[in-house]
Specification:
This protein is α/β, with parallel strands linked by helices. It has eight helices and eight strands. Strand 4, helix 4 and strand 5 form a beta-alpha-beta unit. Helix 4 packs parallel to helix 5. It binds NADP nicotinamide-adenine-dinucleotide phosphate. The site of NADP nicotinamide-adenine-dinucleotide phosphate has 29 residues, from helix 1 and helix 6.
Length: about 270
């Protein structure tokens, strides 16, 4: 059975290769990107693929745009929250989103949170059945008192990235425990794969981007088959950072994310 799948961050790296794999096997794909030209090029190139590929544009560093994306995408069977910001080229430089939030927390976690929250809320017919958060094996406990990594002089891009990725895993586990009508999984696609974010961080790639796409496709298929509340290290089920399993911390994170995103929700 084929599905209609939204993939965020689809014009490069793991996301683009995933779109190519899914459309080749006949799934209809909604490819999301912020770069209009690159998106049009990808959609045109895949116009003859077995599965239809359409494009949708949004800058995920703006939660208004995330909410608009959710309202415009239409009915989908699965969501892959793949778009992300890496360590950055200057790890001591704290960047902010268009809404003024710390950039990694905003794009990697809050955008995925609001997109998931909105799509689930508007999915009255329960067609949306699989949500994949592309997280990372790099996970660090959050500081509830400093979710925006704003403590003066303490900013570190790798730590901010790892916190945002643990937040994605916590969100996966929290949703899976609460919503038994859908599947929620998180996946680490591979370590230092040859993609833009790894090169931008000045790191020599250690793996192929294609293997990352294979890992995310595996997680997606597991979710479509009913696996939920699972974290995959590439294609193997694995244990996440201990902090991801703390139900009280999950609840606090959900409350904080709801409060931060509420002003932007439609
Ligand atoms: N590569 C690795 O070794 C590795 C390891 C663990 C986890 N991951 C995760 O895998 C996912 C895919 O990353 P990748 O390795 O394929 O890196 P990538 O090639 O840099 O892809 C990141 C994607 O996210 C998009 N994106 C970033 N900021 C955005 C924004 N504000 N609005 C919309 N789109 C935005 C990028 O769009 P632009 O092209 O327009 O910038 C790009 O399509 C990420 O979640 C990453 O954290 C990767």
């Amino acid at each position: 059975m084929t599905s209609r799948i939204l993939v965020t961050g689809a014009t490069g790296g793991v996301g683009e290769l995933l779109v190519r794999r899914l459309s080749a096997r006949g799934d209809a794909v909604v490819a999301h990107a912020r770069d209009r030209g690159a998106l049009a090029k990808l959609v045109a190139e895949l116009s003859g693929a077995p599965g239809e590929v359409t494009g949708i544009e949004a800058d995920l560093s703006s939660l208004v745009e995330v909410a608009r994306l959710a309202s415009e995408v239409g009915t989908i069977d699965a969501l892959v929250n793949n778009a992300g910001v890496g360590f950055g080229s200057d790890r001591s430089k704290r960047e902010t989103s268009r809404d003024g939030f710390e950039l990694r927390f905003a794009v990697n976690f809050l955008a995925a949170f609001l997109l998931t929250e909105t799509l689930v809320a508007q999915d009255e017919r329960h067609r949306l059945r699989a949500i994949v958060h592309v997280a990372s094996i790099g996970q660090a406990p959050l500081d509830d008192a400093d979710l925006m990594s704003a403590k003066p002089g303490a900013y570190e891009g790798v730590l901010a990235y790892r916190r945002s990725k643990l937040a994605m895993v916590m969100d996966t586990f929290e949703r899976a425990a609460r919503d038994k009508t859908r599947s929620y999984v998180a996946v680490h696609p591979g370590t230092f794969l040859a993609t833009k974010m790894v090169r931008d961080a000045g790191i020599t790639p250690q793996g192929k981007a294609e293997d990352g796409a294979i890992a995310v496709e595996h997680a997606l298929d597991a979710a479509l088959a009913g696996a939920s509340g699972v974290y995959f290290d590439t294609v193997r089920e694995a244990r996440a950072n201990d902090a991801a399993y703390d139900a009280a911390a999950q609840a606090r994170l959900r409350e904080a994310a709801r409060n931060l995103t509420a002003p932007f929700a439609v």
